[in-house]
Specification:
The chain is mainly α. Strands 1-2-3 form a 3-stranded parallel beta sheet. Helix 1 crosses helix 2 and helix 2 runs parallel beside helix 4. The radius of gyration is 14 Å and the shape is globular.
């Protein structure tokens, strides 16, 4: 959804994707690398273990496509102790999940604060 929204509108100036699954584009008749090339803003990927490191890792294809366009504004951070979906539906009664949800939200907020212009 974040890739499609950014590809459709230059009004989106940055995005954060927790436990990304952009590769699902391929299952719906599209091509995720072509879609990534249309993205108009930097993204911060926060994959969990198993979330396609060939796409979202430091050398991942989608990270590289966006980095070529937006440089160091593109980020990726692996949450190795987490499973896909931990941010919206993780069991925060587990200390490690609570820790990483808090860290992900903190880092997302810092990313937005860095890249979004303040308006009056």
């Amino acid at each position: 959804a974040a890739f499609h929204t950014s590809a459709a509108s230059a009004d989106v100036t940055c995005g954060v994707i927790f436990h990304p699954s952009c590769q699902l584009e391929n299952m719906h008749g599209g091509e995720v690398k072509e879609l990534a090339a249309q993205v108009q803003c930097p993204m911060f990927f926060m994959p969990a273990t198993g979330d396609a490191p060939e796409l979202y890792g430091e050398e991942g294809e989608l990270v590289q496509i966006l980095t070529e366009k937006f440089g160091e504004q593109v980020k990726t951070k692996l949450f190795a102790d987490m499973a896909h979906g931990w941010v919206p539906r993780g069991d925060i009664s587990k200390e490690e999940v609570k820790r990483d949800v808090a860290l992900a939200m903190e880092e997302a907020g810092a990313y937005f604060a860095e890249l979004l212009p303040l308006t009056a």
